[in-house]
Each structure stands twice: as C-alpha cells, then as structure tokens.
Design goal:
It contains 14 helices and 12 strands. The protein is of the alpha/beta class. The chain is globular, with a radius of gyration of 21 Å.
Length: about 350
C-alpha cells in the first residue's frame, strides 16, 4: 500500500510555499495520498491550526514533511515534530530559513532537542549544510530548491535599458533601502531609469520609511506593486532588464532561479547561500552586502556592456536546468518513501 504524506508548511502565506505545492502535486499524480497543513494566513492562526488539526492529521498519515523557518514559527514547527514523534511517524524536516543558524545559536538546547527527533534533515543549500554541520548537527542531504522551467518565458538580454526589478518585498532582511540607494545613483546618470519593487509588504513601518526616502531624494519612475502571483512573475520579469537582490540574509532563493529562467541578468549581495549558488561574472554579478554604490556601478556596467549582459543571460538559462523539478523530484521520492 502506498504511504500517506502530510506536508506541513505555511500554505496560507502568499509568499510561500511554491516548492511544497509542486511536491504535493507530484505525489498526488503518482497515486499517493497527500494532505497539507496549514492554509491559515497568520502565525497565530497557524499555531492553533497545528495544535488542533495537526494532532488528527499527523496521526492518520505515515510520512510527515515539515518545513522549518525558525523564529516565532519554530513554536508550531516544534509542535508538529513532537506530535509526529509521539505517533511514531517518519519525520522529514526541510530547513528553509536563512536565519536558522542565528536562532540555533540563540536557543541551542531547544533547537537541538527538537531537531534530534527528526528522522531526516534536508537543507536546500551548501550554506545551511555547512552552518549546521559546523555546529555539530547532522544534515542528511542537500536537496536544492527548484522551479518548473516551462512556466517561465526566456528572453535573451543583450542591449538593455535601465529598467530595474526588485522582487523580495518590504522586510528588513531583504534590505529594500539598499535598492533605493542604488537606484538613486542609477537615475542620476539615466533620468529615464525605472525601478519596480515587487513582493509582500511585510513591514509597514519600513514601507513608510521607503516612501519618505523616495520623496526626499526626489526619485521618479518607481513603482511599488506589492505581492505578485506566481503565474504573473514571468511577464513581470519580461518587462525588465536587470534584477537586483539586496538581502542581508539568504538561504537558496527561488527568485534567482526564476530570473535565470527568464534571462534577466542578476546583481546580488553575496550573503548566505548566494555565493555557492551563483558564479560571479559567469551567471551573475556578486557584490558585498550593503554596498549600494557597487550595485549601481554594476547596473551601469551591464547597460554599457552588451557582451557581459548576453553572457550572464545565456549562462543563467543553462545553469537553471540543474534546478528543474524533473531533475530534483527523484531526490524527494527517495528521501520521503525509500526507507
């Protein structure tokens, strides 16, 4: 009899979890019984959903796949693991949050206690593998993030315009103020330059600071469009020529894979898993964290260097094939259902 799978992830969060949706769809198509938890749209609602409904759903399933982001979410993530161990289920935890090493150090005894209950721990990047391994915790496997490449339209960039895209939303760890500072230098050189800021507006205070800064610097052609549905990402990327990523913390961002699949050249801060995912000057340009001057300079460089732009665009398309779902799915088959 085929085993039953329960996937526990923030399905109600607009920003996540596309990976788990694809995994769920895959195993249903292969005849498995798959359920998911939770579809609630806030941390508190997710906590109560896990406490109440998680108890029954975990009991009736055989394999429990739990996504770990850490922070406040680790409260209900821990409850999921405790329930699963109580019912003697196979527990597979995938560590997704780039801040997990920080939380692990801050609450080491609790994190170690909970994670030691897990049968298999999966990470999507070399970064988290090395960070957790160096702290003495065993990581069973690296399974990278993935995308369905056929959902994205590729356009080779060569002769580009200063049409800048940022998609990580308004949150401190994504450092959107750096994007504004870099853009101010780009627009000083190209008055027609434009910047689109997409992504969930998670921090309203920071959002107001950004609006005030745009007004203070008298910047033009900036659009803040908020959350974008996954089926609209490709067309959004198509309308832009340079992607900038300004994170101060990162694991293995799906956003980079999406940009490669669409052919837009990438300039990103070299934090967390970025340096192991991206090859500087080959498929992306990597700069130091917080260095908005360098980011603006690299944008201007791409605008004036057709050969480099074309190289990054083409190599990104080739690189992303490694992270196509069809190349990663077998690893999930093995880790979930091969005992």
């Amino acid at each position: 009899m085929l085993k039953r799978l329960l996937i526990i992830a923030p399905f109600g969060n607009k920003s996540a979890p596309r990976q788990e949706i694809i995994i769920k769809k895959h195993f249903i198509a292969h005849g498995y019984k798959v359920q998911s938890l939770t579809d609630k749209d806030s941390g508190l609602k997710r906590l109560f959903d896990i406490i109440i409904n998680g108890l029954f759903l975990i009991k009736k399933n055989d394999v429990i796949l739990i996504n770990i982001f850490g922070g406040k979410a680790f409260i209900h993530e821990s409850i999921s693991i405790l329930y699963s161990r109580f019912f003697n289920k196979k527990i597979v935890a995938v560590l997704r949050g780039g801040y997990i090493p920080y939380y692990y150090d801050k609450y080491k005894r609790f994190y170690k206690f909970i994670l030691n209950m897990v049968d298999k721990i999966i990470v999507p990047s070399d970064y988290l593998f090395h960070e957790l391994s160096s702290r003495g915790h065993v990581i069973d496997q690296i399974i990278p993030n993935f995308i369905e490449i056929d959902k994205y339209d590729f356009r080779l960039r060569k002769d580009i315009k200063p049409k800048i895209l940022y998609t990580r939303g308004i949150h401190g760890i994504y450092n959107p103020l750096m994007a504004i500072d870099a853009f101010s230098l780009i627009q000083a050189k190209y008055s027609s330059a434009s910047l689109t800021i997409a992504g969930n507006i998670a921090d309203l205070k920071l959002f107001q600071i950004i609006k005030n800064k745009i007004k203070e610097l008298d910047l033009k052609n900036i659009s803040i469009i908020g959350f974008i549905e996954k089926d609209k990402i490709s067309s959004l990327i198509h309308d832009h020529d340079i992607y900038i990523q300004t994170n101060i913390v990162e694991n293995m961002p799906v956003s980079i894979l999406e940009m490669w699949a669409c052919g837009i050249p990438i300039i990103a801060t070299g934090v967390g898993g970025i340096t192991s995912l991206c090859n500087n000057e080959i498929d992306s340009i990597i700069i130091n964290s917080e260095d908005y001057v360098s980011m603006s300079q690299q944008c201007i460089r791409l605008i004036n260097n057709n050969a480099l732009t074309e190289k990054l665009s083409y190599n990104g398309k080739e690189k992303v094939k490694e992270y196509a779902w069809e190349n990663v799915s077998k690893k999930w088959d093995e880790v979930l259902f091969n005992d």
